[in-house]
Amino acid sequence: MQARAILLDIEGTTTPVDFVYQVLFPYARRHLGAFLAARRGDDEVRADLARLRSGRDDDERAGLAPPAWGDGAEAEVAYALWLMDRDRKSTGLKSLQGRIWEAGYRSGELLSQVYDDVPRAFARWTSQGKTLAIFSSGSVLAQRLLFAHTTAGDLTGYLSAYFDTTTGPKKEAASYARIAAELGLPPASVIFLSDVTPELDAARQAGVRTALCVRPGNAPAEAGAHRVIRTFDEMPA
What pTM did the predictor assign? Predict the structure, then answer.
């Protein structure tokens, strides 16, 4: 069955790892305290903080010794930084990071990087009638912002759907089955591109087709049963 939808990871797949770790994450760290001091009363931020509090309690019950939780922004910042130091895929944290990056993109301080082959691949695939979607641990807001503010221009016109950890963990097969259902397609007509083999393994278990992206700067990964591509130019789809 020919692929009717292409599901894409971001970090190490469409976007260099260095941009995420050397630009986006440090920006969020620098602005976290000021952001919470100014916005922690907003309803959506309060919801993010409630998710953080729930996750922090889970970490404590698991014996992970997270920072103590208090009534002010200082404790919230401490726990968020603790999560960042561990590169945790916390839904509350990812949502907060997206809100902080939103201000950076709007001010012009942030401009996203994508690999050179991404814009032409997006154009080629959509001209073939394929649906393009994103599945990333970053929030849907962060995903939209990244593709709306790239050095190649606004690429959101090519993208039909965005999925984050509210859909499910990226290393669980059920997440990919759920995505295929939301796209209205059988899993076998979806192909998932990622640089992380366990994510591809999970997608394959759900019946989704897969390809491992090997990009400069990515961590070494065993391809296993997955097709390997080094550029989207290798994959007409």
Answer: 0.92
